[in-house]
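REQUEST FORM: STRUCTURE PREDICTION
Request ID: SP-0412
Submitted by: Lab K.M.
Chain count: 1
Length (residues): 500
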Amino acid sequence: MALNVKRLIYRTAQLRGLILLGLLFLTLILLGGMIWRNLQRLETVRAYISYSYRLQQVSLNMQQVLLKQLSGATGEVGLNKLKHIGGEVKNLTMANYYSDKETPEKLRQLHSLLVGLIKDQKQIQPVMLFPALNGMKGVLNAEINNDEQILTEVIQDTRTELGLAVGTLTAILLLGGWVLRRRILGPLGDLSQLLSRLAKGDFTPISTHRLHPLLLPVFTSYNEMVLRLRELEKENRLRAQSLEAEIRTAAQALLEQQRSLARAERLAAVGELAASIAHELRNPLAGILMSCSNLRKEISNPDQAQRLDLIGAELKRLTRLLNNLLDQAKHTPQPAVKLHIASVVQELLALTRYQIPAHLQLESKIPETLSCQLPEGNFRQALLNLVLNAAQAMGETPGKVQVDAYQKGETLYLRVSDEGPGFSQEMLDGGIRPFVSGSQRGTGLGLTMVQGFAQEVGGHVQIANKQPHGACVTLILPYQGELQHACHATNYRGRNTFRH
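STATUS: Completed
RESULT:
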């Protein structure tokens, strides 16, 4: 860029010098033209003077003839001399170098007078020559006066033209010096200062409104360079900020990983404790289940028998949960079976009805024959955690907990929504994390277990808030099964209906 600027400066100065030399050359040409014109005029004046000199010679010859006549010379000599003078006068009449336009006519009259004297007189008397001599004197005086006037005009014009040429040349030199200093040397000095500003990081472009056209490319290139440098500086600043942001993000990710490791250690400890508790609880639960079975055989009341069946089913589910805990501690995955989603949800909501307050309504809207390959125990536990969390979030406020499920493409969507206060913004931003709960009494492990189940089967969990209030948790799982058009809707306040 600096090399280009130097080339532009050199070319600008060179072009300016050529223009100045051109003006000087033009001035010299004009001055030479004026001198040539004046020489031509002087040549004309010289011809006029020569013509006047010939007139003067004729006048002198006439005077000599007159003197000879006065001195007593013979008439033949005077006549011959007059003939010769007449011939000279005739030649002067035919010449074109006279300055007075009346000269030819006067000379013709003088020639006629001389011819008359020669023709009529055999001897010239002196008194006869005075008219001719006076006529020639008048012609000579007129020519000399005109020649002097023309010569004076030529001298005045020459002086005027010379003064004008010298003044023009001086004006051109002064103007060239002023332009060179004001429009070239001054801006080039300013350009040097501007280049010094660039070294200090000042990338402000300059105005090119009043610059000389010869310097406009130089400062236009400077402005382009300044704008490009400004863009590069901005890019470097943004790159530095981006690097700082990446460093901060990496540091935050590292801290998050450290916190995740700490949570994993705590979860591992909780898992070991849960496994040990599950191992110790299986035997008492087996005894309780056997006692309930024996008691069921002894009771004939249908209502009591139904409740004992529910208790037995829950005891069996607890036993399966304890076995699952032990299997998880052994890292043994639970096998997937074909589940009828509507039936599983109905059974779970019927059982949960006795665990939540009466002012809460449980509803479901699930296609009747929707089925999917899922681990039954883990699916039931995840759904139970979601329903109980929704009921706990609503507290003493009357409302509805609704379970919906549907299939879309290769994905199963199961949604549990409530009409409580919803999730906090911190939880929505941070996602599901262990030991982080929106409830003061919660442990933060329920949603973590649901998320673990979803990830285990290749799915994930989405949490969101409803409008105007309420929370919504959606299980998004891989789907395998067939979907029929019948839709089963259940209201666990005493009504079962089918919707088509």
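NOTES: The domain at 1-188 is CATH 1.20.120 (Four Helix Bundle (Hemerythrin (Met), subunit A)).
Reviewed by: T.R.
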